[in-house]
Specification:
heterodimer; A: 6-stranded mixed beta sheet; 4-stranded antiparallel beta sheet; 10 strands; B: ABC transporter involved in vitamin B12 uptake, BtuC
């Protein structure tokens, strides 16, 4: 099994001061799957993403990516290895155009540095052309072609979310971490998102999805992992998770407590 | 497609007219002092464009730029005076030396905002103290005298006018070089860092490395400017290179407009010529200086160049409105 895992964590923990955000967390994400990550607020989902993406160092434990120990790698190294993410609170380059934002996602695929730019070598010009073609293709894929020259900060909220997905997607990552991509989207935008995630999976990209909107999670994910207080509470298919009494309890409280109080 | 190419032709034409105008200036106003000021403006332009890369594009507040200028000036002067190096080599060595010294900043580039500002201020003070105290090398507070004029082949740049043309040519070359850099993958990475460091990191940009490279390029250009300055004024004094020099360069790009090379050019020329023409009111010179900066800040980050651009846009819109209303009038007349 383990040789098919794209991402694996072993006993991963992260503390903030004395506060435990995640503790002894194990997860195994197979290549090509869409894995949902749910749990009540403060369960440690975003912390887990930040550790996997290298924005936070783990306090202990390991992260293996394609079988290689990458714990403690910095964010830009992991991005280069093929782990890309979006942020819960949008992190766009607000003063750049939509196209430029997506081109930034291609940084690791380019090679031209200062001298190549100064001399405007053939390779550099070819690379620039390739980057903007590639970015335009991605804009088409996420349905933002018509906004290529719009300033990112001028986009409607839902399209900003799509743009961030596009920026993460353009480099053909191996693992895409989506942190609450549906937050603030309306019902039809959510459907578009689910469809987009399906198409991303078809491209062979593995997706991890943190999301509060259960309709999105249940539709998009093959397997769901539930976190509570930094621990893994349950794992299984959407149907199994919905039927799991522990999960229901974590979200809604113990059944009957409400009536007993009265 | 044709629209962008016609825009390109217009850009090239505009640049050409500017270049020719600047080249003709010493012929129209041949007073030596004025030409000297023009040469200083060209040098300021190089300084401002270099700092623009660090400050305007990458968003890093650096007060070290004047120090790199000083390092370049002393390097070039000393190499020619003591070792008899030819100008071209001394000129390039000045850039290289300044770039090398920028590596001193490597441990502090991870600092942000005010912390970086204070650390680079420390660097500026350090360099000034070295220039002041290492008398065996720099002649200390007496300064370096009789710095020779540049010579390229059989050409000696002895007169102010010739020096001006040399400085102008360098400034133009550096302008085009930097323009290529800022519109490249490297330049975009710097802008990304300025706008959102976390997002830049998650795009795979090694933020620290790019900041180091950015300082390196900027320091190199400042070193080149220093070399030109040394051979223009023929005399160097450590007090020309205190942190106040860095502040002056910052003022240039703030007034001209952050994040644009053209803004740096406009700001550098104004902030170099203005104090000279304010000399008559020496007591209030700094006051006027300061007031101007406050006024320009009120126009926002875009500075003078931003003001100019919005004026052009406004004028064009008005023009279009009047022509379209003409069209309307014709229709109704029919």
């Amino acid at each position: 099994m383990s040789d098919r895992a794209l991402l694996e964590t072993r006993g991963l923990s992260r503390l903030f001061g004395g506060v435990v955000a995640i503790e002894g967390f194990d997860i195994e994400v197979r290549k090509g799957e869409v894995r949902g990550l749910i749990g009540p607020n403060g369960a440690g989902k975003t912390t887990l993403f930040n550790v996997i993406a290298g924005l936070l160092r783990p306090s202990s434990g390991q992260t293996l990516f394609e079988g290689e120990d990458v714990s403690g790698h910095s964010a830009h190294q992991l991005a280069r290895l093929g782990i890309r993410r979006t942020f819960q609170n949008l992190q766009l380059f607000r003063d750049m155009t939509v196209l430029q934002n997506v081109i930034m996602g291609l940084h690791t695929r380019g090679r031209a540095e200062v001298f190549a730019a100064l001399l405007r070598t053939g390779g550099q010009r070819r690379e620039e052309r390739w980057m903007s073609d590639e970015a335009l293709r991605t804009l088409e894929f996420i349905g933002l072609s018509d906004e290529a020259q719009t300033r990112a900060s001028a986009l409607p909220y839902g399209r900003m979310r799509m743009l961030e997905v596009g920026r993460a997607l353009v480099s053909q990552p191996k693992l895409l971490l989506l942190d609450e991509p549906a937050a603030g989207l309306n019902a039809s935008e959510c459907l578009t998102l689910v469809d987009l995630i399906d198409r991303i999976q078809e491209r062979g990209i593995t997706v991890m999805l943190v999301e509060h909107r259960m309709d999105v999670v249940m539709r998009a994910c093959g397997t769901i992992t539930v976190l509570n207080y930094g621990h893994k509470l349950a794992e299984g298919s959407p149907a199994a998770i919905q039927a799991n009494s522990e999960v229901v309890e974590a979200y809604l409280g113990r059944s009957g407590t409400f009536t007993r109080r009265r | 497609m044709s629209r962008s190419s016609s825009r390109r032709i217009r850009d090239v034409g505009f640049t050409l007219i500017l270049v020719v105008a600047f080249a003709l200036l010493p012929l129209v106003y041949p007073q030596e002092y004025f030409v000297h000021l023009l040469a200083l403006s060209a040098i300021s332009t190089i300084l401002a464009m270099g700092l623009q890369l660090v400050f305007g594009y990458a968003g890093q507040i650096s007060i070290a730029h004047g120090a790199f200028f000083g390092i370049g000036a002393y390097t070039s002067a000393l190499l020619m005076l003591r070792l008899g190096w030819p100008f071209v080599l001394a000129f390039l060595a000045a850039g290289a030396m300044a770039a090398m010294w920028s590596l001193v900043l490597v441990p502090i580039v991870r600092l942000r905002g005010p912390y970086l500002a204070v650390a680079t201020l420390g660097f500026a003070i350090l360099v000034h103290l070295i220039l002041l105290n290492e008398e065996w090398l720099t002649e200390g507070p007496f300064g370096l005298m009789n710095v020779p004029s540049p010579k390229i082949g059989s050409w000696t740049f002895g007169s102010e006018a010739r020096m001006y043309y040399l400085c102008l040519a360098c400034a133009i070359l550096i302008y085009f070089g930097l323009r290529r850099i800022v519109s490249s993958r490297f330049g975009r990475a710097l802008e990304a860092i300025e706008q959102n460091e976390e997002a830049a990191r998650s795009c795979g940009i090694d933020v620290r490395l790019y900041k180091i490279k950015c300082f390196l390029v900027a320091a190199f250009t400042a070193g080149l400017a220093g070399s030109l300055f040394a051979h223009l004024t023929h005399y160097l004094n450590p007090n020309d290179f205190t942190f106040w020099k860095s502040i002056q360069i910052i003022l240039m790009i703030v007034v001209g407009g952050l994040g644009s090379l053209e803004g740096a050019v406009v700001g550098a020329i104004i902030m170099t010529l203005l104090p000279e023409y304010l000399r008559a009111w020496d007591d209030v010179r700094l006051l006027i200086y300061g007031l101007l900066v406050i006024v320009f800040m009120a126009f926002g980050k875009k500075g003078l160049i931003g003001l100019l651009q919005s004026a052009v846009v406004l004028a064009r819109r008005r023009l279009r409105r009047t022509t379209s209303s003409f069209g309307l009038a014709e229709k109704t007349a029919k």
